[in-house]
From TrEMBL:
Keywords: Receptor, Signal. Residues 1-22 form the signal peptide. InterPro entries: CarboxyPept-like_regulatory. This is TonB-dependent receptor. The lineage of its organism: Bacteria, Pseudomonadati, Bacteroidota, Flavobacteriia, Flavobacteriales. Pfam families: CarbopepD_reg_2.
Length: 895
């Protein structure tokens, strides 16, 4: 490993040093108007005198200063442009210690200035920053994510999340139209790079015209502008591949855009672990529908559908087969109406295998278990959305959304548990069939510049049908569940939960002047939940014995009603914007179980504060604070015992009260186009009172838990930071994430304190050449420290990595990525060393629509990786088996 990394690093440095043979110098200067006032965010570009190609460019800072890196003694044409001014142009020779002062004259024709500025790599107009993709890319990029990674200040994660200057992008548009509801992953992983003309960053994004003057949002959106040759016709690409051992891949992307209508089709079928739509994506996808109550500081926490299911799906599982069909459309019959929607259909089969070393947090007795697991997870999911927007004029904005979400998710697991001197063979079948329909109807009206109204409403119908079938060779839950079998033990549990939820909120905005406005709100949330459950023992003759109720069967009804009044004030004081607010809530809840009703009536006053200080257009500090109230749903209130795992029982608590907590976050952003430095960081702190946590009781390996409101506060504190600096031929990046949490519960009747301290640091250095090979080398360090009063586990991972991208003989390209992992438990017992090497060779003639690719994954044939996890009662480290080495020959055709 050390030899390989040394060679890669030496190669990177050699290439970099050779590139510096041609001596380069910095040319600095300042852009001013005719009154000698500095012009911030003016564009400055140097063109090679002979070829007219872009040699360097820059954006002025808040003092109007810029810098360009040019070859010494070469001839250039210098241009500077700013909206509303004539373009400045000058021929000059690059010499050392040269300082340029550029005076721009007001433009007689502002529209003409807009057209001239389009040739610059970056243009700024109001809240829109436009990047000319061809100015940053080499033409070798495959998808949109590769284009974005070349733009200064952009970051694309492995999960497809996009950040610009450290801020998360909320939505992606293509030609102003939503692409699969703006989902960043669907866009970055599928839009062809050769179709991208410009990338627009839309700051303080709000597509609702009546609210633009009173919006408190600082959301970011991207708008992808297509090249002229990609409009009014079908484009995209189709890939197909085969490999030994039955490996296959089929992946079509088809796109059509016109001023009135657009279609996007994405298909996928493969068994190589490349999932276009994962189970995590299914749970993440909300169709763009946001909760109204959460904005007022209150929420009813509906239980997730993924409880108890494994989410370890990625291309390193033991085996994955996936199929996807997704269709998105937008249609504008006229300027007033807009229709859009999408359908996503996915089927994924995943084989998961692991060996876990588990440490249970308990007061007495042996606490070590070894668990061997082999799981087949099958997931079939459907998402459908239809939206319509009606804007008869600039005063009105009416919109409707209907979103359908359904899935069938099944885990079939064969487990072997070894605890003390006992072995337990377990067969677990966990089936979930979540289904929901959500509809939103919203109206926004600006009566005049001083008075703005909005009415937002939503209705949710949600059905949860989890079934659990458990078979063991050792009797489970001795002393708690009475069983009749003397051999194989088989329990079957079914649950049915129906949720109906109505939210409505009326807002009135009173604009006092250009820098101050008031917001009055009246809202309500009405929720009704019904739950029934039962547990039966299945005997060897096929008959069922239903366990007695109410101990093991639920028949519960929960009604929750929240009415709230809110008042907030927004004031802009120079560079500081303050938005304090108060929300007054009246709650009425009733929980009925077996003819016994538990009621809770209360009122809460929840303050909020948002503050933003803008040092300049590219540097800001933001503070968010609020007191939040959180209520548990029927699953935590229903008091009968439920199976939640092969050795876990849970019973609800009908007397639960709400938790409330302080939420504080502070975020700093600083991005300089002057020297292409991106700095962002922040902290968050949460302190929960009356937190809903569990009290646990262990009987051998089995544990029984009940949710309670705990008196001691639970706290979480986190820090993050990111520094990125771009140079002419290199990019450096440092990331840090630190999180500390402490939470309290009760185990075996004794108060218990748990802590988790995690740290993640990553440093990387990457070359950025247009033609020469590019190399990235880096190192990542991870500390996970978990512990209680009696137990302390410290897991450490060292992860050096290197990536190579090289082009040769005009038509060939080679990519290689390597990662080494050294995983250790400093408390002793576990250490593991493994690495991964992937490579791909591409062949594509210039201007040819055909591409041939030969790829190999896991070339070192690594068998498993290590991971660790921590919960309120369990610390575990597990060996997780992955796909073996395989090769794939694929062909791609670009339309």
């Amino acid at each position: 490993m050390n030899g390989l990394l040394s060679k890669l690093l030496c190669g990177a440095l050699t290439v970099f040093c050779l590139s510096l043979k041609a001596q380069s110098i910095n040319i600095t200067g300042q852009v001013l108007d005719t009154t000698n006032a500095p012009l911030e965010l003016a564009n400055v570009i140097a063109l090679k005198k002979r070829t007219k190609g872009i040699a360097s460019y820059g954006i002025t800072d808040n003092n109007g200063r810029f810098q360009l890196r040019l070859e010494k003694d070469s001839l250039y044409t210098l241009k500077a442009s700013y909206l509303g001014f004539e373009t400045y142009e000058e021929d000059f020779k690059a010499v050392a210690n040269q300082e340029k002062i550029l005076i721009l004259q007001p433009s007689a024709n502002e529209l003409e200035g807009v057209e001239l500025v389009e040739e610059f790599p970056v243009t700024v107009s109001g809240d829109t920053i436009t990047y000319n993709a061809d100015s940053f890319t080499t033409g070798k990029e495959k998808k949109l994510e590769n284009v974005l990674e070349e733009l200064p200040g952009f970051e694309v994660t492995d999960e497809g999340e996009v950040k610009v200057q450290g801020k998360k992008v909320e939505k992606v548009l293509v030609e102003g139209k939503e692409f699969f509801d703006g989902d960043t992953k669907m866009a970055t992983k599928n839009i062809p790079a050769n179709a991208v003309d410009k990338v627009q960053v839309l700051r303080d994004f709000n597509e609702i015209t009546p609210l633009k003057g009173v919006s408190d949002s600082d959301a970011l959106a991207l708008n992808i502008k297509l090249k002229d040759g990609k409009k009014n016709l079908w484009f995209g690409d189709v890939s197909a591949g085969i490999g030994p051992d039955g490996r296959y891949l089929v992946h079509p992307n088809l796109f059509y855009y016109s001023p009135k209508t657009s279609f996007n089709f994405i298909g996928d079928a493969n068994n190589i672990g490349e999932q276009a739509f994962t189970l995590q994506d299914y749970f993440r996808f909300n169709g763009g529908l946001a909760s109204l109550g959460r904005r007022s500081g209150s929420t009813l926490r509906l239980s997730n559908d993924d409880i108890g299911l494994s989410l370890l799906q990625n291309n390193r599982a033991q085996n994955i087969e996936t199929q996807l069909m997704a269709l998105n459309f937008n249609h504008m019959p006229n300027k007033k109406w807009k229709f859009s929607g999408f359908g996503i259909f996915s089927d994924v089969d995943t084989d998961l295998a692991s060996v876990s070393n588990r440490t249970y947090i308990r007061e007495e007795g042996d606490n070590q278990e070894t668990l061997n697991s082999n799981t087949l997870q099958t997931t079939t999911s459907t998402l459908l959305k239809l939206s319509s927007t009606y804007t008869p004029n600039t005063q009105w904005y009416l919109t409707y959304d209907g979103f359908v979400k359904g899935a069938q998710i099944q885990d079939r697991a064969n487990l072997l548990s070894e605890f003390e001197s006992f072995s337990n063979d377990i067969v677990s079948n966990n089936l979930r069939r979540p289904f929901s329909i959500e509809q939103n109807l919203n109206a926004f009206f600006a009566k005049d510049e001083k008075n703005v109204f909005s009415l937002e409403s939503s209705y949710l119908y949600k059905q949860q049908r989890p079934d659990y079938d458990l078979t063991t060779t050792q009797q489970p839950f001795v002393g708690t569940i009475p069983l009749n079998s003397n051999g194989i033990f088989n329990l079957f549990q079914e649950q049915r939960i129906i949720t109906n939820k109505i939210d409505a909120e009326l807002n009135y905005y009173r604009v006092l002047n250009n820098t101050n406005h008031l917001n009055f709100k009246l809202g309500t949330s009405i929720n009704g939940q019904r739950m029934r459950s039962s547990i039966a023992e299945r005997l060897e003759d096929g008959s069922d014995i239903v366990l007695p109720v109410p101990q093991f069967g639920n028949q519960a009804q929960f009604d929750f009603w929240d009415v709230y009044l809110g008042l907030s004030y927004r004031a802009k004081l120079g560079k500081l914007t303050l938005s304090p607010g108060l929300n007054f809530h009246i709650y009425d809840t009733a929980n009925t179980q077996f003819e016994e009703t538990f009621e809770l009536d209360k009122t809460l006053l929840l303050p909020q504060l948002r503050a933003k200080f803008e040092f300049n257009s590219s540097q800001s500090l933001r503070l968010d604070y609020g007191i939040q109230a959180e209520f548990a749903d029927i699953r935590n209130l229903a008091q009968a015992t439920l199976l939640s795992g092969y050795n876990s029982l849970i019973a609800g608590n009908p007397e639960l009260r709400n938790a409330w907590y302080h939420n504080l976050s502070l975020n700093y952003f600083n991005f300089s186009m002057f020297n292409f430095t991106n700095i962002n960081g922040g902290m968050s702190y949460q302190k929960r009172y009356q937190a809903i946590t569990n009290t646990l009781r262990f009987v051998g390996l089995d544990r029984e838990s009940t949710p309670i409101n705990i008196d001691e506060p639970n706290e979480t504190f986190s820090l993050f930071g990111n520094y990125e600096r771009r140079f002419p031929y290199m990019k450096g990046r440092f990331e840090a994430n630190v999180s500390y949490s402490k939470f309290n519960n009760a185990i075996d009747g004794q108060a218990n304190f748990n802590r988790s301290f995690t740290q993640n640091y990553k440093l990387s250095l990457e070359t950025r050449f247009k033609e020469a090979p590019n190399v990235e080398v880096g190192f990542e360090k991870i500390w996970n420290d978990y512990g209680t009063v009696n137990i302390d586990n410290r897991f450490v991972t060292d992860r050096p990595f290197a990536n190579i991208e090289a082009y040769f003989v005009k038509s060939f390209a080679l990519t290689v990525d390597y990662q080494y992992n050294a995983y250790r438990n400093r408390a002793g017992g576990v250490s593991s060393y493994y690495d991964f090497l992937n490579a791909a060779l591409y062949f594509e003639k210039e201007d040819s629509p055909w591409e041939i690719k030969l790829s190999g994954l896991n070339l070192l044939n690594t068998a498993s990786i290590r991971q660790d996890a921590f919960s309120e009662n369990l610390i575990s480290t597990y060996e997780y088996f992955v796909q073996p080495r395989y090769f794939m020959l694929s062909i791609k055709y670009s339309l």
